[in-house]
Amino acid sequence: MKNVMNIAALALASVMSFGASAAAHLVNADEAQNMQAMGSVSVTEITGAPMDIRQALAEKATKEGASAYRVTELTQGDHWHATAQLYK
């Protein structure tokens, strides 16, 4: 039984790591110069840490078919707001 649980855990970890590798990644302005822009996305009313903003932007960018994104606006008040340029 323990072996079955270990195999199931490894299979789940493999699927999760594959999904993470397919996600859009953050690039800087220099890296973005060599990429093709394809629009933008924004997230609002995010609470928590800056990593939460990065995760929300990466999810939206991936959903839009982007391979990368660059943050162009980031503000914090009661909630975070961020806008990112998407790239192929």
TrEMBL record:
<dbReference type="InterPro" id="IPR025543">
    <property type="entry name" value="Dodecin-like"/>
</dbReference>
<dbReference type="InterPro" id="IPR051096">
    <property type="entry name" value="BhsA/McbA_stress_biofilm_assoc"/>
</dbReference>
<dbReference type="InterPro" id="IPR047775">
    <property type="entry name" value="Stress_YhcN-like"/>
</dbReference>
<dbReference type="Pfam" id="PF07338">
    <property type="entry name" value="YdgH_BhsA-like"/>
</dbReference>
<keyword id="KW-0732">Signal</keyword>
<dbReference type="InterPro" id="IPR010854">
    <property type="entry name" value="YdgH/BhsA/McbA-like_dom"/>
</dbReference>
<protein>
    <submittedName>
        <fullName>Peroxide/acid stress response protein YhcN</fullName>
    </submittedName>
</protein>
<feature type="signal peptide">
    <location>
        <begin position="1"/>
        <end position="22"/>
    </location>
</feature>
<feature type="domain" description="YdgH/BhsA/McbA-like">
    <location>
        <begin position="35"/>
        <end position="88"/>
    </location>
</feature>
<dbReference type="InterPro" id="IPR036275">
    <property type="entry name" value="YdgH-like_sf"/>
</dbReference>
